[in-house]
Design goal:
Helices cover 88% and strands 0% of the residues. It contains 3 helices and no strands. The N and C termini lie far apart (108 Å). It has helices spanning 2-6, 12-74, 77-84. The chain has one domain. It is an all-alpha fold.
């Protein structure tokens, strides 16, 4: 009975250890695959964030330019006269 448990490569303990090792290897492979997916998603989200930051900066610059233009137009004498006519 003890021989059945402890035979090298054929014993119950060795087979259980091999099964556990295979399972560990499979789980490690899954973890590596998941990490690769997460890394790709992180890269995509970082690029998307950078694009949004750039768009926000452009919009802010446009807002500043439009505010300046509106201020210049409202100070124009022709604009004031035209506004009084309405």
């Amino acid at each position: 009975m003890l021989d059945e448990l402890t035979k090298s490569s054929e014993g119950l303990i060795d087979r259980a250890a091999a099964t556990l090792q295979n399972r560990e290897d499979d789980l490690n492979d899954r973890m590596e695959a998941m990490q690769a997916l997460l890394d790709g998603q992180r890269t995509r989200l970082e690029r998307q964030f950078q694009g949004l930051e750039s768009a926000l900066a452009n919009l802010s610059a446009q807002q500043t330019a439009l505010a300046s233009l509106a201020a210049n137009v409202s100070n124009c004498p022709g604009y004031r006269a035209a506004r009084r006519g309405f």
